[in-house]
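#struct-help
A.M.: can someone run this one for me? Single chain, 289 residues.
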Amino acid sequence: MKRFVTYFLPLTLICLCGCEQKEHQPPPVERISLAVRFFTSMENQDAATAVIQGRNILARDTSQNHVLTLVSIQESNHAIANAQRKLNEGKIARVPHRCAQDPARPCEQCSALDIIENALLNYPDNNILKNTRYKLLELLHAESYFREMDRATTSAAITEARETIESGLFRNMTPQLTAYLNFCREREQLLAARERAASQAAREAASRDAAAAAADDERRSEEDSRHSEATAAEGQESQRMRDAAGPVPFEDQLEAASDAADKAKAEDARREAEAVRFLQQNSSGNDGE
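D.P.: on it. Structure tokens below:
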């Protein structure tokens, strides 16, 4: 986390501090004494006193927007400076613990979010602190965003990771992060061009393969047709040769001999049966005498 945050998002919070020297219009003459004390307290880095004096000025003249801005800066100065130090150490997420809850003197366990949340307890309407909290909440997910970009190997994955970073860290956009996203966009475009070329080459190869397969099918079909025709011609030629050769020699004699043999066998069987009946009849007659 520290590597990503400190490289791409430097001075995310501290840039809001140190605005005490901002040029401003001189306050009305009747409140010059209070205004002088207010700016003197800021120069002496006495934030607590400066906040009270600034609010007194605003109570007399609510149109002093520049004073309101300075008061907000004084309210948030210490908290943001301390949160920045924790951010540089990679300590962002809140850590359950007990401490003095003082943004000006955070304990070792306090994270950047702990410090800002504690400051908001004292100054709930401070827009600078609110904006800082939003920035820190974005940074909680920064490491996972960059990790997804490192893992992206296609143009679509890079596009998704880049858009996630742009939307997820828009409050923390820095020149370094902008340059990184521009690099990712160039890589995305290069990969997209390569993918389109590869896709076109694949389509052309598939078209060639389909044409070759169709030609091969047609060739095999023609070969099958020629083979069938040749087989039919051979069959017809064989039948023609058998018809031309006439009957097989001795075929009729062989069939006649086979029929005669069958008849002889049948006659022998008949005679044998008659002999058996004759013997049985004679045997019965002798028994009766």
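A.M.: thanks! The CA atoms of residues 173 and 213 lie 56 Å apart.
D.P.: also worth noting: The chain has ten helices and no strands.
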